[in-house]
Specification:
Layout: H1 25-40, E1 45-47, E2 57-60, E3 72-83, E4 86-91, E5 99-104, E6 107-113, E7 119-125, H2 126-139, H3 150-165
This protein binds nickel (II) ion.
């Protein structure tokens, strides 16, 4: 089931999501819906709080569903190691219509558990590293906008607030 994507301004995106202590039918359904929602968008990653559920779960697929075996689901992800830097334009399904250049590590190693509760360690480079960092930010109540200078962030924030007032942010 495709779930509505929560937009910037909703408080579920502004606070850290909670650690998942037990993987039940509910989490499995949630992940299935997150994957469907991400592919429909289409996007290369989605955090559970982007569909309004404050749980530390993220899905990523740098091919946005175009290639097989690119889909990664991590529950309770933690950053183990980072290396290098990359500068690329980045956007967010919760901030539609806006993007900005954000510096991220070139490579990243993430540790967490899969839907069977088994520990997983995954390494991502380039776009996947960017997606991991971006979704980890969401799970920590942050946005890519938080990596911009105050001035750039404020310009975007003002434009969104105006769209909200005009009823165009939904
Ligand atoms: Ni995002």
């Amino acid at each position: 089931m495709i779930r509505p994507i929560v937009l910037w301004g909703d408080e579920v995106l502004e606070k850290p999501a909670e650690t998942v202590t037990n993987i039940t039918e509910e989490e499995i359904n949630l992940v299935r819906d997150m994957i469907e929602t991400m592919y429909k968008a289409p996007g290369v990653g989605l955090a559970a709080n982007q569909v309004g559920v404050a749980k530390r779960i993220m899905v990523t697929d740098p091919s946005a569903g175009e290639r097989k075996n690119q889909l990664i689901t991590v529950v309770n992800p933690e950053i183990v190691a980072v290396d290098g830097e990359q500068y690329e334009e980045e956007g967010c399904l919760s901030v539609p219509g806006f993007s900005a250049e954000v510096v991220r590590p070139r490579k990243i190693v993430i540790r967490g558990v899969d839907l069977n509760g088994k520990e997983v360690v995954v390494e991502g480079a380039d776009l996947l590293a960017r997606a991991f960092c971006h979704e980890m930010d969401h799970l920590n109540g942050k946005f890519f906008l938080d990596h911009l200078s105050f001035i750039k962030r404020d310009i975007i924030r003002r434009r969104i607030k105006k769209m909200m007032r005009d009823g165009k942010w939904e």
